[in-house]
Structure formats: C-alpha cells, structure tokens
Amino acid sequence: xxxxxxxxxxSYRAVGEVLDQLFRIVGxxxxxxxxxxxxHGLTVQQAILLRSLDDPIPMRVLADExxxxxxxxxxxxxxxxxxxxxxxLPDQADRRVRLLTLxxxxxxxxxxxxxxxATRTATRWNLDSNDFERLHDLLTGIxxxxxxx
Length: 149
Hints:
Elements lengths: L11 H28 L4 H9 L4 E2 H7 L4 H13 L3 E5 L7 E5 L1 H22 L3 H17 L4
Helix pairs in contact: 1-5, 3-4
C-alpha cells in the first residue's frame, strides 16, 4: 500500500476569509466592467460576450462557455449584431451552423473595453509585475485544476 502524503489543509476560517476577498474582488471587477460597458453603450453581458469572441465560434459553444441557455445568447447576439459589433457567418463545414465573429468595429470596441478595464484594475490593485504574475499563475492553476473540460 502506498502512503498518502499528508496535505495540510487551510482552516475553514482561512478559506472563508479568502472567499470574502474573492467576493469583494468580483464585485469590484463587475462594477468596473459595468462602468466601462456603459461608456460604450453596452450592458455587462454584451461586453462579456464581446470579450469572449476571439475566433469565429458557433452560438451553442458560446452559450456553453458563458454558462447560458442558447436562447439567452440569441437575444444578446441579436442586440449586438444590430449595433454592428458582431456578425453571423455560415460554417463552411456545416451550413446549418452559424458562427459568431467580431466585425472590425466590434474588435475595436472589445479592445477598448479590455484596455480600459485592465488599466483601471491595474491602477486599483497596485500590484507590481511579479505579484501580478504570481496571482495570474495561482488563479490559472485553480481554474485549470477545477475546470469541467
């Protein structure tokens, strides 16, 4: 029998304190995203959708990534498409599938939102590059370890 290594787990109190800090950070980021989105005439959900589009993606896959019902994504897409920020293209592999892609204007707006959000957050958090890299690595590790994929 192989001996299991003894992992020292944090106390429930320490975990609770970390969760409280994470909730505060999420609240702050949401507040900043709402402000930046409003400056561009968008809702938070629309900005999140724009930020999630790097390459053309089927609507169903986007719905899964955003943990939304496909009908919710359809409504968001309809509104953003009317603003000229995204377009639906036929998938060459399956013409029944529509791929979402950013228009040049959508890419510009997405990049502005990302830049403004990053600038405001970096200023607020006041982390040096080493601290930010450590935070990034910790969060990435947690996210990868506990992802559904």
